[in-house]
From TrEMBL:
This is ABC transporter ATP-binding protein. Keywords: ATP-binding, Nucleotide-binding, Transport. It comes from Streptomyces tubbatahanensis. PROSITE patterns: ABC_TRANSPORTER_1, ABC_TRANSPORTER_2. GO terms for molecular function: ATP binding. InterPro entries: AAA+_ATPase (IPR003593), ABC_transporter-like_ATP-bd (IPR003439), ABC_transporter-like_CS (IPR017871), ABC_Transporter_VariousFunc (IPR051782), P-loop_NTPase (IPR027417). It comes from the Bacteria. Residues 325-340 have a biased composition (Basic and acidic residues).
């Protein structure tokens, strides 16, 4: 997976013009009767990135995706998809959404489902859609209602990819897939995204797998954005400071402690590297640090776990994820009403 800081070019070398935003949010908020599901969220997702959307249950991930796909309207703030309002013809035409429910007509056959996709989408790619279905040996003549949950997910994937969207939004797409199918569809996703410059926003609780597909990251907690930016720039802004068991605490100044515990990471302190049995402190760097024992950049999984366990740390929005001026966003909408 390419983790270039400036582009996300795939094997075909696709690169968007510098500065193109797939999504831009400014002061975005959504209030339901029970309260705010999302509050004061501002970020930009550069075009062509595969972005993981991570957060605890109820953090606001689905709400954000529903706002981008215009299934709900924001209470506050402004949101743009490729510079256009969500729900505008341009934004809808360029976006595909695979929701958790994956609604499909149960009485349609797989072939009929794909035909419907073709009829509804001018950019439809039958080869891609059929390839995804046939790779799972799902018969084209089978009715959707007779398929297993995982097979239905595969058909829903085929519909989403066949649409050839510029922005593909996937809400926890992997939960009912077996590990091999997950891997295969993830490879399809990254290859398609790289070849066509597709921007992908994928929510998932499967942290270890996200690091194989994502080069960009949005972390939400309690309705607020905690972390946004390139995976590489976010990792480089942190360090995992390890100390031998019972040994002296690592020197923390001038850094900000994100999480301090006996075990940082999935399998113990820096366990992902097989160095178990050490205490660890995840810090946001406030000054230079020399990597090499006892400091190392965290893996994506370690970074995510640290932020998920510490939802109240101040947000870090990396430079590449900072949105443009709110006035630029709004004046694009109402050029005639601007007087000065
Ligand atoms: N239609 C709704 N009406 C009222 N409250 C809602 C509605 N949809 C979501 N919420 C609330 O908004 C908050 C955010 O929910 P959301 O579904 O966006 O979270 P999520 O991050 O997608 O969670 P999960 O990981 O569990 O899917 C939650 O407190 C939820 O109860």
């Amino acid at each position: 997976m390419n983790h270039s800081a400036t582009h996300h070019p795939g094997p075909a070398g696709y690169a968007h013009p510098a500065g193109t935003s797939a999504i831009e949010a400014h002061g975005l908020g959504k209030k339901y009767r029970r309260g705010w599901a999302l509050r004061e969220v501002s970020f930009r997702l550069p075009a062509g990135r595969v972005c993981g959307l991570v957060g605890p249950n109820g953090a606001g991930k689905s709400t954000l995706m529903s706002l981008v796909t215009h299934m709900i309207q924001p209470t506050t703030g402004a949101l743009r998809v490729f510079g256009e309002a969500p729900g505008s013809q341009g934004a809808v035409r360029r976006t595909a959404f695979l929701s958790q429910e994956k609604p499909l007509f149960r009485r349609f056959t797989v072939a009929e489902t794909l035909r419907l996709g073709r009829e509804l989408n001018p950019r439809w790619d039958q080869g891609v859609a059929e390839g995804i279905v046939s790779a799972g040996q799902v018969p084209l003549t089978a009715r959707i209602g007779t398929l297993s949950g995982g097979q239905r997910t595969r058909v829903a994937f085929a519909l989403a990819f066949g649409k050839r969207p510029d922005l593909l939004i996937l809400d926890e797409p992997m939960s009912d897939l077996d590990p091999l199918v997950r891997r295969e569809l993830m490879e399809t996703l990254t290859a398609e995204a790289a070849q066509h410059g597709t921007t992908v926003l994928v929510s998932s609780h499967m942290l270890a797998e996200l690091q194989y597909i994502c080069d960009y990251l949005l972390v939400v907690a309690n309705g607020g954005l905690r972390l946004a930016g390139e995976v590489d720039e976010l990792r480089a802004a942190h360090a995992l400071l390890a100390a031998p068991d019972g040994g002296p605490s690592p020197h923390l100044a001038p850094h900000r402690v994100i999480e301090s515990r006996g075990a940082v990471g999935a399998r113990g302190a820096v366990g992902a590297r097989g160095e178990e049995g050490r205490t660890g402190v995840l810090v946001r760097l406030g000054g230079p640090v020399e990597y090499g024992a006892p400091a190392a950049p965290p893996t994506l999984e370690e970074l995510l776990l640290g932020y998920l366990r510490s939802p109240d740390v101040p947000a870090l929005i990396a430079p590449s994820a900072q949105p443009g001026d709110i006035h630029d966003i709004l004046t694009r909408d109402q050029p005639e009403t601007v007087t000065a």
